[in-house]
Amino acid sequence: MTNGSIVAGPMLAAVLLVLLLLAAVVVWRGELGSGRAVLTAGLRAVVQLAAVSLVIAAVLRSGWLTAGFVLLMFTVAAVTSARRVGAPRDVAWAALAIGGGVAPVLALVLGSGVVPREPVAVVPVAGIVIGGAMTATSQAARRAVDELRNRYGEYEAALSLGFLQRAAALEICRGSAGHALIPPLDQTRTVGLVTLPGAYVGVLLGGASPVQAGVTQLLVLIGLLAAEAVAVLLAVQLVAARRLHADWSSPA
Fold it and tell me: How far apart are CA 56 and CA 51, in angstroms?
């Protein structure tokens, strides 16, 4: 690290490799999932960030290219979330949940001028919010589907009591799906005490003052919490309405 910046080089590559192998071995030997999936995710991150680094300079010189890049991020997020939920054909519904969380947050922070409407500011903020809404949508929808499948008998019982289908489904899955908000809530509650998140560290490494870094991180955290709350609400409603992952009606 030189002048507060992390320097790319053989040592950094070696450290990243060791960390990736550690994660893969722990997942594999601990029977927590696929170690290969961990390695694949790490390698994809290397390739994708390398590609982004090559094109980002050109993107940031044009407002239209910036808008296109943000749209690309959003599209990839929707496709990824739909696949993660187990409903790859429901990309449009996943996009609705993610977009419902992202749109008001970006409209407010950009429209108010709190975040400058310049590519160098728009791209990272949009990426953070889109990424958070994507994760929240995936987690909420998966939890909702699992709960409905595991408690399908209770769903049928609610129907027999006169509940409408969507209302019966919500009675079963809403509480579990809401657990998708636990990570952002914990991160917001403990910021500065347990962790210094990425936006704070990034602004500091960029040469800003600690106060500026803190203000930036606060905006990111609260914006993420708002976006993820809306995304979770929409995701669980769409699952209950059999729009996002319609085949949960098959009991496990």
Answer: 9
